[in-house]
Amino acid sequence: MRADGRDPIREAARLLTERRNAVALTGAGISVESGIPSFRGAQGLWAKYDPMEYATLHSFMQHPRKVWEMLSEMVSVCGGATPNAAHKGLASLEEKGVVRSVITQNVDGLHQAAGSRRVIEYHGNLDELICVYCWRRFQTRDRWTPGDVPLCDCGEILKPNVVLFGEPIPWLPQEQAEEEARTCGVLVVIGTSAQVSPACDIPRIAKESGAAVVEINPEDTSLSGNVTDIHLRGSASEVLQRLLQTIFT
Ligand code: NAD
Ligand code: ZN
Fold first, then answer.
1. Which residue has the CA at smallest separation from atom 30 of ligand 1?
2. Which atom of ligand 1 sits closest to the CA of residue 122?
3. Using N-to-C axis directions, what is the helix angle for 8-19 and 236-248, rounded to 10°?
4. Which CATH superfamily is domain 1-36+83-123+169-249 in?
5. Which pTM was predicted?
6. Coil, helix or strand for 63?
7. Which atom of ligand 1 lies at the shortest distance from residue 192's CA?
8. In the chain, where are the structural domains located?
9. Residue 195 CB–ligand 1 contact under 6 Å
């Protein structure tokens, strides 16, 4: 409950049910409770591997074997993870017609595993590998084994088909995400620090097109207090469960 006596969960639930055309924008924070470390958190992968050294296209082109040390860990962690209550909550909001799509910056495939059907993968998915020399694509499970560096038929080292720093967003997900942002009534932003460009522009596009912006994050972000209309503080699973209860009871 806020100082003015209004319950932000109830306000968000009211907006979602009245407008019924919400879109979710998710980031690494929604998968933290599935055991996948976020990007900027103190612990985990990124404390060990500086993303500017390991997650750029430039470093992949220069030292693919070194970058695969980090990628191997990421593929293993994501491959072993299962959806949590927040992924499942979003899938059930879609099934019930409250949320119409999910734009995700994540590359772990957990929204689809939870049952979400309209998922726009803004940064790709670790499930697929691509050769940046001959453009052949492969399923990761067909080419990669832990501790190994996956090779293309042409002999070059394959890259996960995800957007590394320094790579453009593929045209289709970028167009789809902007269209969703321009036409939604509510944008629910979950577990993103909104610091990675151009994904961080999506909330502003939605807001300027008339949507209300609801943020679910235990911390303040660059959106809080300016783009965000309602900030629901807490973990994604806890807040989404409370939101579902409020909407459907
Ligand atoms: P980020 O790491 O920059 O920010 C994570 C945000 O999640 C923070 O604001 C944090 O306060 C919040 N958070 C932490 N725990 C949470 C919880 N339990 N519930 C809700 N929120 C929580 O993440 P980002 O903004 O998504 O940027 C990271 C980039 O790195 C993305 O573009 C993504 O492609 C990539 N990445 C993906 C994964 C994945 O696929 N799961 C994991 C790490 C990084
Ligand atoms: Zn090749």
1. 39
2. 34
3. 60
4. TPP-binding domain (3.40.50.1220)
5. 0.96
6. coil
7. 25
8. 1-36+83-123+169-249, 38-80+124-162
9. yes
Whether 36 is in the pocket of ligand 1, judged by its Cβ within 6 Å, is yes
Cβ of 70 closer than 6 Å to ligand 1, yes or no, is no
Ligand 1 contacts CB of residue 27 (under 6 A): yes
Catalytic position from the list 87, 111, 123, 231: 123
Residue nearest to ligand 1 atom 28, measured at CA: 39
Best of 33, 38, 126, 241 to mutate for ligand 1, by most ligand atoms within 8 A of CB? 38
CB-based burial of residue 91 (10 Å sphere; 0-12 exposed, 13-18 middle, 19+ buried)?
buried
Active site residue 123: yes
> Residue with the nearest Cα to atom 40 of ligand 1?
106
Residue 93 CA to residue 117 CA, distance in Å, equals 11
| CA 89/CA 173 separation, integer angstroms | 23
* pLDDT tens, residue by residue, 117-172: 999 999 999 999 999 999 999 999 999 999 889 999 999 999 999 999 999 999 99
CA dist., res. 18 & res. 39, Å (int): 34
The CATH architecture assigned to 38-80+124-162 reads 2-Layer Sandwich (3.30)
**103 close to 202: Cβ distance less than 8 angstroms:** yes
Q: Ligand 1: which residue has its CA nearest to atom 21?
A: 191
Strand partners, 103: 25, 120
Token code pair at residue 171? 């045209």
Over residues 185-235, the pLDDT tens digits come to 999 999 999 998 999 999 999 999 999 999 999 999 999 999 999 999 999
